[in-house]
Design brief:
The protein has about 350 residues and is an alpha/beta fold. It folds into two domains: about 160 residues, Response regulator (Rossmann fold), CATH 3.40.50.2300; about 140 residues, Rossmann fold, CATH 3.40.50.2300. It has 14 helices and twelve strands. It has a six-stranded parallel β-sheet, sandwiched between helices. Strands 7-6-8-9-10-12 form a six-stranded mixed β-sheet. The longest helix has 24 residues. It is elongated, with a radius of gyration of 21 Å.
Amino acid sequence: MPSQRRLAALVAGALLVVSACSSSSSSSPSGAAAGSAGPVAGQFCSGMNITFFPGGTPGGGFETVVYNGAKAAQAAFGPNVTYQWSDWDPNKMITQFTQAVATKPDGIAVMGHPGDDAFDSLIADAEKQGILVTVMNTELPKAEALYASSGMGYVGAVLHDAGASLAKEAITRAGLKSGDEVMVWGLKAQPGRGERTLGITDTLEKAGMKVDYYEIDDATNKDAANGVPTFTGYASSHPAVKAIFIDHGNLTSAIPTFMKAANLKPGSIYAAGFDMSPATVQGIKDGYISLVIDQQEFLQGYMGIEQLCLAKKFGFGGLFVNTGAGFVDKSNIDTIAPLVTSQIR
């Protein structure tokens, strides 16, 4: 199934390239022979109503880039889009989804953080009402399997794989060995979303590390600054720690703040995390942040809108797009930095 959906993504992408080229040279499909297909207009999704969930809070580093991607797709394809901010709170996402269904949009793009058990009955109700649903950032595997043929896609990282990749790469680069003490700060308790944290801890434990796991509390999940006491308390009581792994984009960007508060010098602990932001760029340049996986979250926003438009207007099935494939460190940060400043990466 994933391979078929990836092929569909390539086909759909080719269609949109042709569409963009056609619309740039002609504002209407005039000249098409009777009975033949004309070029697709650039604003082919005009008139469609979409509710979109960027995830966190307005102005947050990660979610702002998701939002920018969605806004770019809105401008390109022409739907009407309502944005719902959820503070990364799975319970709030569920409440807002129920409220969104009541407004009867044509489609809803959701973050999958609440998990299948919490979400699927609500998604089933929306689908019965003819409302398309697609998923971003955190998979809903059961729902995706049920509704892929009717337009439910997924765009985001394959979470367990992403966590495992970060841990494997950090072990190699930092020279970590069996018996070394490491800290993992993540969201293991969240169904679905916790898979990325599990990918990290499973890999580290398999390699023989002594893993100190801390769950990100609700206050810190909403505002990284609230995590300073947790980190400084940990660092002072675990002087032998060799590396930290932070499974949260906004907390990754706060690694320099955490380390300065704990009186730790750049590079004194190998620090690995997720997602790009201007603060993360500076943290990498200054040596506080060692390694980051870039989820390319702009694509999550752009392709979330794209998926709903393609399904509504042309009946395309769900596309599966893995956006979490690239590592960023000091060796390539200068190439990525301008795009991060523009809030595209």
